[in-house]
Amino acid sequence: MTDTTYNKIIIAIDGFSSSGKSTMARSLAAKIGYRYIDSGAMYRAVTLYAMRHGMISEEGIADARTLISALPQISVDFKVMPDGSQHTLLCGEDVETAIRKLDVSSNVSQVAAIPEIRHALVAMQQAMGKEKGIVMDGRDIGTTVFPDAELKIFVDASAQTRAQRRFTEMLAKGAEVNFEDILANVVHRDHIDQTREESPLRCADDALHLDNSTLTPEEQDNWLMERFKATIAHTSVK
Ligand code: DC
After folding, report:
1. Less Cβ crowding at N or C end of the chain, within 10 Å?
2. Measured in angstroms, how far is the CA atom of residue 217 from the centroid of ligand 1?
3. Quick check: helix, strand or coil at residue 101?
4. How far is the CA of 197 from the centre of ligand 1 (A)?
5. Given its phi and psi angles, is residue 155 left (phi above 0), alpha (psi -120 to 50 degrees) or beta?
6. What's the DSSP call for residue 12?
7. Rounded to two decimals, what is the model's pTM?
8. 111, 51 in Cβ contact below 8 A?
9. Could you say which residues of the chain have pLDDT below 50?
10. Among 113, 121, 125, 156, which Cα is nearest to 21's?
């Protein structure tokens, strides 16, 4: 049930890939009538653009300069579907399925490590949060995008657990995948996300830490809702 009488705050949810943060962020946003933004989808959309324009080769990103100069032509937006789900639009095209494929997953960390790309997407994300009433998930939301967010969560789970979740999810979608490839991709992305120079993935000092390795989605949702209510009770902004 949507209750839009809540105060409008910013909720920043960061964490490792496949930690379940998007599911919990989306679910909370729907329950409290907030806008949900998957910032990872924005990095994925820019990566898809780079791949389609031949800027990424087997060896990695071949042409960062050209990608940076193409930024003014790359628009990334979201569309709410009739069933309430959100689809990512790249220059107006619905790319929701394409950006979730393994080829994009394998290239996205390199694109997300380019400072100019980050600056452009962070500015877009900050504009989306201007009116507050937003739940955004990613890697640097509590540290860089919204350092003053009223509620910050950092979600964690072991690499094995996260790879298993992604594997199950992709099998359910009918994808032909190999568990070892998925695990290698998760470990590789963790490494790049944590060691890049620009806004590396880290837990903000004032974030609440959640290890959800042994929690069911429902337990996780309840945990987050409690934190939200406690934060709202102590927040006077409207
Ligand atoms: O959450 P995800 O797996 O869809 O994110 C895709 C990639 O984008 C991941 O490698 C990390 C990067 N990312 C980032 O650097 N900063 C964000 N705020 C969100 C995602």
Report:
1. N
2. 21
3. coil
4. 15
5. beta
6. E
7. 0.90
8. no
9. 1, 238
10. 156
pLDDT at 135: 97
Q: How far lies 37's CA from each of 55, 74, 128, in Å? A: 26, 18, 8
- Tokens read off for 28: 């909370």
For 67-91, write each residue's pLDDT tens digit.
999 999 999 999 999 888 899 999 9
List the structure tokens of 66: 């050209």
CA–CA gap between residue 78 and residue 68 (Å, rounded): 22
Q: Which of 43, 104, 197 to mutate to test the pocket of ligand 1 (most atoms within 8 A of CB)?
A: 43
Question: What is the reported pLDDT for 237?
Answer: 53
Helix (H) or strand (E) holding 2: none
Distance, in Å, from the CA atom of 186 to the CA atom of 198, rounded to the nearest integer, reads 20
- E-strand stretches of the chain: 10-15, 35-38, 56-57, 60-61, 76-80, 86-90, 93-94, 134-138, 151-156, 208-211
Cα–chain center distance at 39: 4
Q: Round to whole Å and give the CA distance between 238 and 236.
A: 7
- Which residues are registered as beta bridge partners of 61? 56
**Bridge partners, 117 (sequence order):** none
Q: Do 138 and 152 contact (CB within 8 A), yes or no?
A: no
Return all residues near 56 (Cβ < 8 A) that are at least 6 apart. Answer: 47, 50, 62, 63, 107, 110, 111
Both tokens of 16, joined, read 């490792």
Pocket of ligand 1 contains residue 154 by CB under 6 Å: no
Answer whether 40 contacts ligand 1 (Cβ < 6 A): yes
Which residues are bridge partners to 38 per DSSP? 137
Q: Which two tokens stand for residue 55?
A: 């800027």
Question: Would the CB of 152 count as within 6 Å of ligand 1?
Answer: no
